[in-house]
Amino acid sequence: MTNQEIYDKLKAAYGGAIGSFHEQAGSAYMTRTSSYADIVEYSQIAQICQYLRDEPTLEFDNLNCLSCDDNGDKTLSVVYHMESLSLKHYFALKVTVPIDNPVVPTVTRVWASANWHEREGWDMIGIKFNEHPDLRRILLDDDWVGHPLRKDYKEPEFYRGMKVGY
Amino acid sequence: MSELFNRTMTTIAPAPVKIIPAEKVEPNRIKTEEMILNVGPQHPSTHGVLRLEAVLDGELVIDVIPHLGYLHRCFEKHCEAMTYPQVIPYVDRMDYLAAMNSEHGYALAVERLMGIEVPEKVEYIRVLFAELQRIASHLVAVGTFGLDVGAFTPFLYCFRDREDILEMFEKTCGARLLYNYIWVGGLSHDLHPDVLKMCRDFVKKNRATHAEVNNLLTFNKIFVERTINIGILKPDVAINCGASGPMLRGSGVKWDLRRDDPYSIYDRFEFDIPVGTGKMGTVGDCFDRHWVRMLEWEQSLNIIEQILEQYPQDDKTDVQKAVPKRIKPAAGEIYSRTENPRGELGFYISSKDGINPARVKVRSPAFVNLSILPIISRGYMMADLIIILGSIDIVLGEVDR
Q1: Angle B334-B258-A115 (CA atoms, 0-180°, nearest 5)?
Q2: Contact (CB<8Å) A26/B329
Q3: Model pTM?
Q4: Helix (H, G, I), strand (E, B) or coil at A90
Q5: 3-state DSSP call for residue A37?
Q6: Is some CB atom of chain B closer than 8 A to the CB atom of A87?
Q7: Residue among B141, B190, B189, B130 at smallest CA distance from B165
Q8: DSSP, residue by residue, B73-97
Q9: ipTM for this prediction
Q10: What is the mean pLDDT of residues B199-209?
């Protein structure tokens, strides 16, 4: 299935929850793997992912990557890149949330691999994944303040008495 | 006093004591206290700086909680201030055992983002070096896995052969581990004229080492008994957990990006995708993962032989011919992946039409594979936990980034 067909199928199933389709214009590879659909109603992301995984004609059994990003315009985004090992097609979803209330439902119950990716997203960008089984910091220490990959992040001067800057 | 004694005796009825005859005692049902054991961060068996919090019931592992981040440098933040080519040395330092493969993955991602075609000769050199690096990485993986099990000698044989590979890299680009060799659109240097001959000699010598390591380690009875039927990862669980590379193939899933999503010139070579078949024990156990690595090592040698046959020796193309003067991709985002020795190495790059990337996120195979450790080590012995961790083959530079 091409990305456009997958998008049409998803749009037919979920209607208003699905936003516009962004086709990546660069190389053919880019169009194939990285074209994504916006998810407007992001409270439904877990159901949408469940549908993408369980629908026999789609069968997205593998979540390749879950990336979080700070867009720099007071919004954060989560991108889900997925593929089907059996049917060999790709798709991506993008969720954009306001920076002052960044809460997105977890997809850990759909793909177990999302667990550590979401923990990393919380640690680095500060997106709260709702109902995540174990949302702790993963790469930084538990008492670290702030989320380093945000554009407005300022590193602390001292951490536990040690000078941070060099 | 005696009155008090009598009164207590009468008011509190003694609990009935059930005597279990010795032959009917089930040791597994005796309630013992849970103990938490810290493994690492500074311990050879953790292959770097990783701390495992193991919850034990006697010697049985109830749960494992990995604590990461001891090698965290937040290179993704650095990338925001770097230009695209400046990111390459950072990518090297991610997976320091397979820096060539990481560079290849990153360069390919930016080339796909910009739509750059590189000359055929460059592709041949890239694939040659990627496969040599894959062998070097598997040599370390197999050698250190032997160390975890208690076999010291194969490790020395492996490192002896790895030295030859590093020498070829050193001759060509001057560096042994962290190369900055594969650039966006090309290479930093042309292939050194001696390397093709060295490579031919190496393949011959390495085939002998492969047989030797098989005899010394793989089919050693102690090694087999130690690694079969532990850390079993079922194929459906493996896919759902995002396993990739030898970890996924060890579970019997025939999936290799070099064949299933071909990049560079991999579609020109013939090679098998080895999968775990439960050769000695169960499909997806530690032995299978080791065995898949051994077979992949052989397949990489086959690919190298084909490259040596096909390599365009008379081609005098400048390897920097396609390197763009100014790397400034149009706005857009890409998720590009390649097959690293450890699995699927993905780069999510978001460009906002500037000279530096707006966001680089790395999907590192070792990070995702390590997240499966708690699932596959529950219910085994503490000593098996070390072997299971060794069979995943993690590189902490890549896990922590």
Answers
A1: 55
A2: yes
A3: 0.87
A4: strand
A5: strand
A6: no
A7: B130
A8: --HHHHHTTS-TGGGHHHHHTTSTT
A9: 0.90
A10: 92
